[in-house]
Amino acid sequence: MLLEMRFANFFSIKEEVCIDFKAGNIKTVAAKNLADNIFTVNEETLLKVQGIYGPNASGKSSIIKAAFFCRQLVIDSFQNNEGVVFSFIPFKFDGYYEKPSSFFINFITDGIEYEYSFTLTRNQILTEELYYYPGKRRAKIFTRDESAGTKKSDIYSFGEGLFIKPLDVAQSTGKTTLFISRASQMDREIAKKIYNYFRTELLIGLPQLSGQYAVDLFNENKKLIIEALKMADSDITDMNVKVESTPFIADTFNISRKGMPLSPNTIKTVEIINFYTVHKRNPDITFNLEGEESAGTIQIFNLLLILLDVCKNGKTLILDEFDASLHTELAQFILDLINASKSAQLLFTSHNTNLLNIKKMRRDQILFTNKKEDGSTEVYSLFDFKDFRENMDAEKCYLQGRFDAVPYINSSVATIKNLLEEN
Q1: How far apart are CA 124 and CA 103, in angstroms?
Q2: Following DSSP, what letter does each residue of 365-412 receive, concatenated?
Q3: Do 189 and 195 contact (CB within 8 A), yes or no?
Q4: InterPro entries attached here (predicted)?
Q5: Structure pTM?
Q6: Rounded CA Rg of the chain
Q7: pLDDT means per 10 residues in the chain (423 residues)?
Q8: Contacts with 266 (C-beta within 8 Å, 6 or more apart), sequence order
Q9: How far is CA 343 from the centre of its chain?
């Protein structure tokens, strides 16, 4: 479960911004009616859904990119060689381009709370820290400070008995590699636990589900998937899945184990999972999902499968423009699906103001991004507006600019005509 993320000096993000999934202290009747929007773990009340709204270029995507960059560095940086340049741009104004960027994530996995953070420039990692809460007190697992000396024993400090031969890992960890990534690759148990959280529990974007797991997930939730697809395409009435053997002709240049060329006509068979839809016009005719349905239907189906995986296993999913091309009712269905789960979480960005409904979302679930005068991104919550009452129309207030996070455009036919005439 995700508790909190903080990022600084990353693309349009200058000063530290915070995405906090810890629920605010809201005791109104409206909040009580949304009891399914929260859950409790380790005595902490957490939100299941948070949505980020704001004008174009206000920094919504920068937040998603920062989370993705953090995740990928944990997963992949053990492969980095010296001289690697990290693929991001610090904030370009006010001298921040030369300053370090920082990343912090507070999460729970296997019932234990962790705080993991690191700072870096585009060329090297500067600091790295991992703390946990074995009880109610914060305890150190390791810290790293590359400015503390030249010896690994000066740079690193470790909690008692948590790592096997930690300095062996440190010796193998270069300045472009996160220690946690290297330690996981070197089979250190606590590092593997952190690594697996980022790899399997914190999902960003839409990974493709395949194999028997996708089949089982579909079969267990077939009715729900069909109902959701009906919202997108009312002509679909049924759906099935088949595991089919497909012939595969070996490449002429394939070489056998004995070094002899294989016959060009060597045929192998591979098992492929195919999903088929049935339409109202003729229930006896099926359509291959991947080959014959629209791109939108395929996208919705894949999104639903991922969401079902997230809901079933209590994962966190982060999506940019999650509802692009989706009808409002289907977008709301997706949010309801997360809220119906036990402990799944969704962070999304959107321009769909119809979802700004206080009867569906708590005030602390609605976040805004705004571009400040210096060009940097700020993030704040509807919960921060103490004068907003829950009998008000949040969508109307947002569009009126009450929360600042809307573009101010002097747009009219006459204005545009003048601009065209000037050119």
Answers
A1: 14
A2: GEEEEEE-TTS-EEEEEGGG-TT--TTS-HHHHHHTTTTS-S------
A3: no
A4: ATPase_AAA_core (IPR003959), P-loop_NTPase (IPR027417)
A5: 0.89
A6: 25
A7: 98 98 94 96 96 94 97 97 94 95 98 97 97 94 97 96 93 97 96 97 89 91 87 82 76 48 62 90 92 86 92 96 83 93 97 93 96 96 92 91 73 71 73
A8: 249, 250, 254
A9: 15
Distance CA 375, CA 127 (A): 27
What stretch of H or E contains 152? helix 152-155
Residues in the chain: 423
Taking Cα atoms as reference points, which of 241, 245, 302 lies closest to residue 274? 241
1-205+320-423 is classed in which CATH architecture? 3-Layer(aba) Sandwich (3.40)
Q: Where do the domains of the chain lie?
A: 1-205+320-423, 211-304
Partner residues linked to 116 by β-bridges:
105, 130
Burial of 261 (0-12, 13-18, 19+ CB in 10 A): exposed
**For residues 193 and 182, what is the distance between their CA atoms, to the nearest angstrom?**
13
Name beta bridge partners: 106: 4, 115
219 burial (CB, 10 Å; 0-12 / 13-18 / 19+) is: exposed
Q: Which of 89, 135, 128 is nearest to 112 (CA)?
A: 135
CA distance 7 to 347: 15
Q: Quick one: which H or E segment has residue 94?
A: none
- Token pair listed for 18: 């915070």
Positive/negative CA dihedral, 180, 184, 186, 190: positive
Q: Is the CB of residue 54 less than 8 Å from the CB of residue 368?
A: yes
Q: Three-state DSSP class for 272? A: strand
Rounded to 5 degrees, φ, ψ at 365 are -90, -10
Task: Round to whole Å and give the CA distance between 374 and 368.
Answer: 17
The pLDDT value recorded for residue 295 is: 80
Beta bridge partners of 87: none
Cβ(286)–Cβ(275) under 8 Å?
no
